[in-house]
Amino acid sequence: MKIGYFLSSEECGPRELVAQALKAQEAGFDGLWISDHFHPWNDEQGHSPFVWSTIGAIANATEMKVTTAVTCPTVRIHPGIVAQAAATSAILLDGRFCLGVGSGEALNEHIFGDRWPEADERLEMLEEAVEVIRLLWEGGVHDYRGRHYRLEHCRVYDLPDKSPPIVVSGFGAKATELAARIGDGYCTVAPDAESVRLYRDKAGNGGFVQGGMKVCWDADEVRARKTVHRLWPNEALPGELAQVLPTPEHFQQASELVTEEMVADEVPCGPDVDRHVAAIKEYEDAGFDELYVNQIGPEQDAFFAAYRDEVLPRVR
Q: What are 231's strand-pairing partners?
């Protein structure tokens, strides 16, 4: 299993993200995930730069593979624009780009007053959006009239020699089966062996599986737990809240119910190498091909040093 670094656009500004990408490369990580948000989950995280600009800067600064984790190409941004942005990124990254897509969250997608659809309709929109993206990547001029999207004499002129793979995010059986049907790969953020098996059973095309997880490396475990609780209490919110709550303020209100112990159960905290290794091994045992690890909080240099010297050698 390859181990990459997960860049958090919600927690870091664009310059810091590029600096972290360089540090990840120097520490020996295999690639990058980068989140694509208009809003952070809460004001404490405090950032949300435009992901496509950041990717351009990363392409110029590193030799790393980059995957969006994930872009929603359905409501806030038309899939034709995503097709153009992803094609440009693939050119700049010289084939080291992967487009991760998902059905999105109200947090980012309702901001222009659009209706937030129910889950089944969101998956239907995602399937059509991927169809539009792949159509435009074929080159030439296209007209398209679907249930949700239209193209009129539309052409993406700058295309990479080979279209980037599309990885589809999935939580639950319907989304996982959709990923198997339309994606080149599947991604999720829990070591869910059952979902990986479902994807592989349905895909039948040798598709790959990516995962993401959060940690908080710190010499002081108590401080690490407080950092996670301050910045990412939403990690412990249950069910579909992440998809339907519309504003950072709503997430802050819901997160008042989350205790420090609850987030510590979800996120490895502190300097115990065995704990970090065990969390990574859960993804390997579940059948993932790639895992991207995000460090929560300010101790980035300590994290990269620890993973370079102690964690990555143990899991490879």
A: none
Task: Reply yes or no: is the peptide bond before residue 51 cis, omega within 30 of 0.
Answer: no
Domain ranges of the chain: 2-315
Nearest to 39 by CA among 199, 314, 246: 246
Angle at 29 between CA 162 and CA 181, to 5 degrees: 45
Q: Active-site positions?
A: 37, 105
Q: Which helix (H) or strand (E) holds 244?
A: helix 241-244
Q: What is the CATH number of domain 2-315?
A: 3.20.20.30
Predicted confidence band of residue 206 (pLDDT cuts 50, 70, 90): confident
The pLDDT of residue 204 is above 90? no
pTM for this model (two decimals): 0.98
Q: Which helix (H) or strand (E) covers residue 32, if one does?
A: strand 32-34
Measured in residues, the chain has a length of: 316
275-300: average pLDDT: 98
Q: What is the largest CA-CA distance in the chain?
A: 59
Compute the C-alpha angle 64/62/129, nearest 5°.
50
Token pair listed for 222: 């108590």
Q: Which residues pair with 212 in a beta bridge?
A: 292
* 144, 74 Cβ separation under 8 angstroms: no
For residue 173, the one-letter residue type is: A
Write the DSSP assignment of the chain as a string of letters: -EEEEEE-TTTS-HHHHHHHHHHHHHHT---EEE---SS-SSTTT-----HHHHHHHHHHH----EEES-B--SSSS-HHHHHHHHHHHHHHTTT-EEEEE----HHHHSTTS-----HHHHHHHHHHHHHHHHHHHT-S-EEEE-SS-EEEEE------SSPPPEEEE--SHHHHHHHHHH-SEEEESS--HHHHHHHHHHH-S--EEEEEEEEB--S-HHHHHHHHHHH-GGGG--TTHHHH--SHHHHHHHHTT--HHHHHHHS-BSS-HHHHHHHHHHHHHTT-SEEEEEE-SS-HHHHHHHIIIIIHHHH-
